[in-house]
Give the backbone structure.
Amino acid sequence: MRCAVILLCLVMVACAKSEAPKMQNADTLTQRQHDSVIGASRLPGAQGISKAQGAQDAENRRTAKADSVARADSL
């Protein structure tokens, strides 16, 4: 019985998954930088990416302005 338990433990250890080393992503561009490169290209629909980023920037500016006004009012 003792041999069976030891054998079972050895089999479990042998079958356990070892953590594989994680590979680092070679791409060092952020998602925004990646999208900017695509938006500047002549690919079909690439202008839409640039326009969407411009709209996002405008919305971020409006949000930041509203946040600064709200903070000034709370003081």
Summary: The two ends are 76 Å apart (CA to CA). Helices lie at 2-15, 31-40, 46-74. The mean pLDDT is 83. Residues 32-75 form one domain.
